[in-house]
Amino acid sequence: MKLVSACLLGIKCRYDGKSKPNEKVLELSRKETLIPFCPEQAGGLPTPRVPQEIQGCSGETVLDGQCKVMNKEGKDVTEEFIRGAEETLKLVKLFNIKEAIMKQRSPSCGCGLTFDGTFSKKFIKGDGVAAALLKRNGIKVITEEDL
Question: What is the Cα–Cα distance from 66 to 20, expressed in whole angstroms?
Answer without folding.
Answer: 31
